[in-house]
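Weekly sync, protein design subgroup
Attendees: M.S., D.O., the rotation student, P.L. (late)

Item 1: inverse folding check
M.S. brought a backbone from last month's batch and wanted to see whether the design step gives back something sensible before we order anything. D.O. pointed out we never logged the input encoding, so this time it goes straight into the notes. Structure tokens as presented (274 positions):
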């Protein structure tokens, strides 16, 4: 579908609207449209306007009703289509026009999705907001990679970590390294060397299994595995591209036995080439 740019969204108004506006912060999950919740799909199909992020997959965008205005408001590193404070105000403005706004995000709105900031802004303006949870990338992508976040005898916990902070990264590396948890790093490709160095300096073995999951839960998903000490080398050698997750922990080795999606991909390729 064609993407309408953010420069056009300010001209969409519901003329004569009398009902109060409403905002749905919707998690689209990690990419596979089959992982949308029933409620997420219902909101997408009934909203007056959709504001969607970069990580909302093409397959999910194909489900947008053709008559519903849909606008890209995504961000990539050093390239934001709209500053966050302007996006917050845009959501408020559209709701104040009487529109039901579907703010659609990859994964889950409340897991590194800045959904809390958008909700605070809307509620401060007196606008009603609902949250529609989505499957966050750490849960969806590891499942499709055959890497359980927890597994008896391996780990009893998991930690989700962002590799980027608003101004600086205040991460307790000692706590992470000693937790025994499966560690999942969001937005970490450019910080792979730092992650590797900091965890090893905090006492984690350089031989700890690690994985990079590129385009998780999508047909082009790719899983690159190795050890913590070679994390940055893997990113460079295999030319891993965003979006990608970094997973560190003993459970990574279970993918040898549990990588069901990779096997399904191989079977599909074999069938198509037969």
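Designed sequence read out in the meeting:
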């Amino acid at each position: 579908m064609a993407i309408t740019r953010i420069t056009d969204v300010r001209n969409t108004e519901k003329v004569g609207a009398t009902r109060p506006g409403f905002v749905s912060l919707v998690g689209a999950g990690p990419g596979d449209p089959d992982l949308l919740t029933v409620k997420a799909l219902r909101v997408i199909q009934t909203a007056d306007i959709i504001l969607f992020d970069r990580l909302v997959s093409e397959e999910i965008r194909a489900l947008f009703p053709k008559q519903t205005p849909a606008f890209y408001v995504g961000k990539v590193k050093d390239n934001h289509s709209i500053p966050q404070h302007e996006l917050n105000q845009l959501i408020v403005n559209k709701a104040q026009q009487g529109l039901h706004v579907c703010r659609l995000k990859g994964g889950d709105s409340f897991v590194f999705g800045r959904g809390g900031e958008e909700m605070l802004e809307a509620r401060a303006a007196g606008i009603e907001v609902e949250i529609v949870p989505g499957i966050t990338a750490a849960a969806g992508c590891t499942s499709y990679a055959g890497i359980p976040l927890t597994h008896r005898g391996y780990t009893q916990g998991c930690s989700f970590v962002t590799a980027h902070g608003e101004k600086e990264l205040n991460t307790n590396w000692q706590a992470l390294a000693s937790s025994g948890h499966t560690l999942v790093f969001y937005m970490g490709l450019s910080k792979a060397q730092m992650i590797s160095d900091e965890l090893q300096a905090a006492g984690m073995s350089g031989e700890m299994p690690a994985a990079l999951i590129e385009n998780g839960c999508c047909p082009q998903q790719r899983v690159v595995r190795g050890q913590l000490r070679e994390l940055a080398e893997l990113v460079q050698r295999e030319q891993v591209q965003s979006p990608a997750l970094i997973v560190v922990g003993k459970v990574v080795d279970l993918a040898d036995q549990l990588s069901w999606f990779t096997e399904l991909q191989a079977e599909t390729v074999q069938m198509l080439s037969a």
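Discussion: Residues 6-135 form a domain with the Cobalt-precorrin-4 Transmethylase; domain 1 fold (CATH 3.40.1010.10). The CA atoms of residues 182 and 249 lie 5 Å apart.
Action: P.L. to compare against the previous round before Friday.
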